[in-house]
Amino acid sequence: MDIKLHKQATMAPKTHAEIQVASTSITDSELARQYGVAVATIRR
């Protein structure tokens, strides 16, 4: 499967979907640490 992301994409669509599902049960800082991104990225 060939995934085409724009130049400034920071994560794959699969990771983005996982974060959306998990955001109700885990804090933003825990998710950021788990996925190696900034808290601001999680909040977006």
Can you characterise this structure?
This protein is mainly alpha-helical. The protein contains three helices and no strands. The longest helix has 10 residues, at 13-22.
Notable characteristics:
single chain; 44 residues; mainly alpha; globular
- Poorly predicted residue ranges: none
Alpha-carbon distance between the two ends: 26 Å
The main β sheet shows up as: none
**Helix vs. strand class:** mainly alpha
Structural Rg: 11 Å
- Approximate helicity band: 40-55%
Q: Quickly count the helices.
A: 3
Write down the overall geometry. Answer: globular
- Strand content is under 5%
Mean pLDDT across all amino acids: 79
Can you count the beta strands? 0
SSE diagram, text form:
Blueprint: H1 13-22, H2 28-35, H3 39-43
What's a concise summary of this model?
The protein is an all-alpha fold and 44 residues long. It is built from 3 helices and no strands.
